[in-house]
Amino acid sequence: MSPVNTFVMVGGGLAAGRAAQALREHGHTGPLLVIGDERERPYIRPPLSKGYLLGEEERDSIFVHPEDWYAENGVDLLLDTSVRSVDPRAREVELENGRRISYTGLLLATGSSPRRLRVPGADLENVLYLRRVGDSERLRTVFTEGSRIVVIGDGWIGLETAAAARTAGAEVTVLGHSDLPLLKVLGREAAEIFAGLHKDHGVRLLPRVEVERITGTKGRVDGVLLADGTRLAADAVVVGIGITPNVRLAEQAGLEVRNGIVTDEHLRTTAPEIHAAGDVANAYHPFLDRHVRVEHWANALNQPDTAALSMLGQEAVYDRLPYFHSDQYDLGMEYTGFTEPGGYDRVVFRGDTGQRRFIAFWMAGNRVLAGMNVNVWDVVDPIRALVRSRADVDDRLLADPDVPLASLLP
Ligand SMILES: Cc1cc2nc3c(=O)[nH]c(=O)nc-3n(C[C@H](O)[C@H](O)[C@H](O)COP(=O)(O)OP(=O)(O)OC[C@H]3O[C@@H](n4cnc5c(N)ncnc54)[C@H](O)[C@@H]3O)c2cc1C
User: How remote is the CA of residue 279 from the centroid of ligand 1, in Å?
Assistant: First the structure.
């Protein structure tokens, strides 16, 4: 197939599905093809560790578009199909079966994959990961009343999984490398609140531990041995130790790859007519004045619009602030902005941290870099505006719930 003006999206996730939609919305009338190696049409992953895992959301609710949307919008879906290589000079992609497809414009939206645990026993049955819808369905079968679940990794996926397992009545232990869960992402002040949340729900948190091996009987996991000699019994082990961007195609095609596929603010890669979006893109962010790779849903939702405009030759820049959300037990949170360890000098709280109903602000000097609202709603807009304004803000006013956030804007 090599019709003129064909746009190809590689990766069948949220970013690819949204890019197809955006290309149509912005007037592309030629062929559109989405190629993904999963069997399902594009779907969103957040419910896989929350409502869908808990059995509260239907399978139908996770898809980016209804099934007939693709035919109605003239979008060809090639599912269960892996792209083997990209040839930027010939402007072709090659499928695993050797078929070659020409493109006018190509979007790499290959996402990311769970980092694998590399210790003896890691390949035993019931050592599980969570990325795909089938993984979530598998976890649901092992999260049962009284089952013993060891979660390796205390980041977002580890904690959300722990919450789902606990809610199902399992006995849950979470293993982490550092002092507190989420320490690297949130810093000590806010991480302590999440540690308290899980302890209050009966999760056993084991900080500063190293996994020596996974033990098993007859090929199936029965426990985890820690480097300090501690043995934990387990019916299943869930590994959530981070993700790595799927950059193999980009590397092989000679694109610049550094912590993801490097793009400019238009989401153009270093090869002509190839763009990248979603988890895999390490994009230059004009507001932050640096490259960032954002492993979150909102980024995969919104970047494709910019990529589509840029693929169609129109001027478009992606500079939305990073945003993500999480739900654990009865705690819901949203985080807006960007900071990293060493990038801020203090955290200012507004509200009641004991009741877990508050907003936390990460500050550098008098500037707000990021804000996280926990069980407080409809504040993302003013938080985003505060961050974008780069305004000087007084800590005391920021901390006072009676002072409207909008009044702190210049
Ligand atoms: C369990 C879970 C819960 C999450 N919860 C949240 C949350 O609460 N909030 C939040 O903000 N974010 C959350 N995220 C992150 C969010 O889901 C990701 O940021 C988002 O999925 C990224 O979308 P994407 O389209 O860029 O990549 P992906 O969703 O990874 O999709 C990429 C697709 O491309 C396919 N692919 C890769 N290589 C090839 C190839 N060579 N050929 C064909 N296909 C290929 C992959 O198999 C995959 O299907 C969660 C993620 C997971 C796994």
Answer: 7
At the fourth CATH level, the homologous superfamily of domain 7-113+244-311 is FAD/NAD(P)-binding domain (3.50.50.60)
Q: Which two tokens stand for residue 295?
A: 């492993």
Mutate to test the pocket of ligand 1, among 37, 45, 185, 325 (most ligand atoms within 8 A of CB): 45
Distance between Cα 300 and ligand 1 center (Å): 8
pLDDT tens-digit series, residues 63-117: 999 999 999 999 999 999 999 999 999 999 999 999 999 999 999 999 999 999 9
Distance CA 66, CA 72 (A): 10
In terms of CATH, what superfamily is 330-408?
A: FAD/NAD-linked reductase, C-terminal dimerisation domain (3.30.390.30)
Strands 105-108 and 274-276: parallel
The one-letter amino acid at 329:
Y
d(CA 247, CA 270): 14
Could you report the per-residue pLDDT of 110-165, keeping only the tens digit for each? 999 999 999 999 999 999 999 999 999 999 999 999 999 999 999 999 999 999 99
Mutate to test the pocket of ligand 1, among 257, 297, 306, 324 (most ligand atoms within 8 A of CB): 297
Ligand 1 centre distance from Cα of residue 9 (Å): 14
0.85 exceeded by pTM? yes
